[in-house]
Design a protein that fits this description.
- The complex is a heterodimer.
- By secondary structure, chain A is α/β, with parallel strands linked by helices.
- Chain A has five helices and five strands, in the order βαβαβαβαβα.
- In chain A, β4, α4 and β5 form a beta-alpha-beta unit.
- The longest helix of chain A is centred in the C-terminal third of the chain and has 19 residues.
- Chain A is globular, with a radius of gyration of 13 Å.
- By secondary structure, chain B is α+β, with helices and mostly antiparallel strands.
- Helices cover 53% and strands 19% of the residues of chain B.
- A five-stranded antiparallel β-sheet of chain B has the order 2-1-5-4-3, sandwiched between helices. A five-stranded mixed β-sheet of chain B has the order 11-13-14-16-15, with helices on one face. Chain B has a four-stranded antiparallel β-sheet with strand order 6-9-8-7.
- In chain B, a hairpin with a 3-residue loop joins β15 and β16.
- Chain B is rod-shaped and about 190 Å long.
- Classes of the chains: A alpha/beta, B alpha+beta.
- Chains A and B meet through α1 and α4 of A and α7 and α8 of B.
Chain lengths: 132, 578
């Protein structure tokens, strides 16, 4: 787990911890405050404690818990947290299902970092516009 | 199994069992055996009753003809025998009457005998002479053309027989006149003493010959008289003149008619024997055998013609029916095999699809890590001071990311194929979809100077389908067609409505074409004919296209001839039967 202080907060949940950490470092270099977790429950506890992210990057398929359940938990906790689903799985069914539950967008691995950053900014902009 | 019919049936069964069970046979041979077996069975089933009927008719008619011939033979024999017996009986009674009416003394008078002879000859024209023989066996008086007066007959057979039997008809012999004749003689007692005299008439055999000649007819080939030793007593058409030895040795002497079937010079005949009463003669008639008769020969010829014509018709019909049945079975088998192959192919593609999806998913995660790491390295390099190999590092990382992007394309396509997202059903106008797709490919076609000829049916109905997927299907196929043809070639696209309620799209190119082996594989994943360096084909285009077509409840077929070109035929139902 690595932590970088930045203006916008991004939390990454992916059981592929190496991906999560690498991604976190890349985003950190782009002025995001990023936390990366390999375990969803741990991440949820962290969110609930004191660190509320603007955007969560969420893996769909994890060994103990399904990404969509985590999405529900996040949205239950704070609907304003935007969630982007990142998956290696090809099915858009999950994407559609996720959209219905308040998912912001759906990206497929391997992700182009520029595209990811673009999506994060869009999500933050949406969140800001809602707040306004 | 002794019967030839049973053997034939067993053989026919074997033909079937053979052709069904023997997996070593080629399909061609199996259908050939099947056809032969059917032909054999059909021929047997039709021919056996025909042959039985023909055989029965043959035997029945032969029996009828044979009985008719035998009955005619009996009738003509009996009537001839009666005529001869009547002739001889009349002659003998005439002579008996003369012997009774005149005394020995009267008849020894030449004048009296001449007178009596004239009368007798008048009544019986065959009589040659009449003579009176005294008790000493010496001829006393003679009336006739020969000079036989004074001849002594005491040693003659007929003389002693006449004395013994009172009346006698002799066999034919030459006698003193040295000409064949027979005698009819009666003996009477001389009233003055106990001695006997004889009145004798000679008849030449020509009389008998003439008489018998009148019996000849179409069916009576020969008629003659023989004695018990087989010597001819009248002339025969086949065995010679009077006195000759006939080949008939065993002459039946029973007083009834005998009918035998014999061969004369290898020719079948019917021969009848009938003894003539009170004579040493047997009447022999030879008749044409039924087999030589015209009605029988005509019947046989007609029967043979009917049999041949019917057999020919049966064989032709059986040949046609066997051919038709074998062809029907063959086409049904082929349809079943094609269906099986199709099902197998679909199953194979589905399995490959599932496998590919699984593999793609597993690969995407490490790919994502590689990609992210490369990105991080690039980011870190951007923050690092310049060093000697900086540019080279960046170039290597770019290259690494490009390779990842290429892998990603492949895995995404695989996942795209396996994906089962809901189709968006809406009315789609195929011609419009084609024109849209062509607008994407126009530049590519222009670049290669490939002409695209459209033959689109204008009043095509809209079909209920997924426009995006249809676009992808058509894009893949038309793109492939453009890739496959040489510069300045052309591609034709045709659409038309076909029954029942479907739209058919044909995309033909004049490219190099494909061998049947390649045609079988083109819908399989990772199969490509595109040169990797030129086009970077993934081998997934047609695999995905196939999956999409099936998803849209359509059908895709390929027809291709090496050196001529390839046509893809797509068809989609107007309405989805979900």
């Amino acid at each position: 787990m690595k932590k970088t202080i930045s203006k916008n907060k991004v939390l990454i949940i992916d059981d592929e911890i190496e991906f999560a950490e690498t991604c976190a470092e890349c985003l950190a270099l782009r002025d995001f405050e990023v936390m990366a977790f390999g375990d969803a429950n741990e991440a949820m506890n962290f969110i609930r404690s004191d660190w509320k992210p603007d955007v969560v990057l969420l893996d769909l398929k994890m060994p103990e818990i399904d990404g969509l359940e985590v999405l529900d938990m996040i949205k239950n906790y704070d609907p304003r947290i935007e969630v982007i689903l990142i998956t290696a799985h090809g099915s858009t069914e999950h994407g559609i299902s996720g959209m219905q539950r308040g998912l912001f967008d759906f990206l497929m691995k391997p992700v182009e970092l520029d595209e990811l950053v673009e999506k994060i900014h869009q999500a933050i902009n949406l969140r800001l516009s809602v707040q306004d | 199994m002794k019967s030839p019919w049973l053997r034939l049936i067993r053989f026919t069964q074997n033909q079937f069992v053979f052709c069904i069970n023997d997996s070593n046979l080629s399909a061609q041979q199996r259908y050939l055996y099947l056809r032969r077996g059917l032909l054999l069975i059909l021929c047997m089933v039709a021919m056996i009753p025909l042959i039985i009927t023909a055989g029965l008719s043959y035997n029945q008619y032969r029996q009828v003809v044979k009985e008719e011939v035998e009955s005619n033979a009996r009738w003509s024999t009996v009537s001839t025998k009666q005529n001869i017996e009547t002739f001889l009986g009349k002659l003998r009674s005439s002579i008996s009457i003369i012997a009774d009416a005149y005394s020995f003394m009267d008849l020894t008078q030449q004048n009296t005998l001449d007178l009596v002879f004239e009368k007798l000859k008048h009544e019986n024209p065959g009589v040659v002479d009449l003579s009176v023989i005294g008790p000493d066996g010496v001829q006393q008086t003679y009336s006739g053309p020969f000079n036989l007066t004074g001849k002594n007959y005491a040693e003659s057979l007929w003389y002693s027989k006449t004395l013994a039997q009172q009346s006698y008809i002799s066999e034919v012999f030459l006698g003193f006149r040295n000409l064949p004749h027979f005698v009819v003689a009666v003996s009477r007692k001389i009233s003055t003493d106990n001695s006997h005299w004889i009145l004798r008439a000679s008849i030449d055999t020509e009389t008998i010959d003439r008489f018998l000649l009148s019996i000849h007819s179409d069916i009576v080939e020969d008629v003659f008289l023989v004695n018990s030793a087989g010597l001819l007593q009248s002339s025969s058409s086949f065995y010679g003149k009077v006195g000759a030895q006939s080949p008939l040795t065993k002459i039946p002497r029973k007083n009834r008619l005998n009918l035998v079937e014999e061969y004369r010079n290898s020719k079948p005949i019917i021969r009848t024997y009938s003894p003539i009463k009170d004579t040493p003669w047997t009447l022999v008639l030879e008749h044409t055998q039924y087999a030589e008769k015209k009605p029988w020969r005509q019947f046989k010829r007609k029967l043979l013609i009917i049999l041949c014509v019917c057999s020919l018709l049966i064989v032709i019909a059986a040949y046609r029916i066997a051919g038709f049945v074998a062809a029907s079975i063959r086409s049904a088998d082929e349809a079943r095999e094609a269906l099986l192959a199709q099902t197998e192919h679909n199953d194979k593609l589905a399995s490959i699809g599932r496998l590919a999806a699984g593999v793609a998913h597993e690969i995407n995660n490490p790919l994502a890590i590689i990609h992210a790491k490369a990105q991080l390295l690039k980011d870190l390099l951007a923050l690092t001071k310049d060093f000697e190999y900086r540019e080279k590092f960046l170039a290597q990382l770019d290259s690494q990311q490009k390779a990842v992007a290429r892998s990603r394309d492949i895995t995404h396509r695989l996942l795209g194929f396996a994906r089962r997202m809901e189709s968006k059903l809406e009315p789609v106008w195929i011609n419009m979809v084609i024109e849209e797709v062509l607008s994407f490919l126009e530049r590519e076609a222009q670049y290669k100077s490939v002409r695209i000829d459209l033959d689109l049916q204008q009043d095509l109905p809209a079909i209920t389908s997924d426009q995006g997927q249809l676009q992808q299907i058509l894009f893949n196929i038309i793109n492939n067609a453009i890739d496959s043809v040489d510069k300045n070639s052309s591609i034709e696209i045709r659409t038309k409505k076909v029954e029942p309620a479907a739209i058919r799209i044909e995309i033909s190119d004049h490219g190099p074409g494909m061998s049947p082996e390649i045609q079988k594989k083109i819908f399989e994943p990772f199969f490509t004919t595109k040169n990797e360096k030129d086009k970077q084909g993934t081998g997934l285009g047609l695999f995905i296209t196939y999956g999409l077509v099936k998803k849209l409840h359509g059908d895709i077929q390929v027809q291709s001839v090496v050196g001529i070109g390839t046509t893809f035929i797509l068809s989609f139902p107007e309405q989805r039967q979900d």
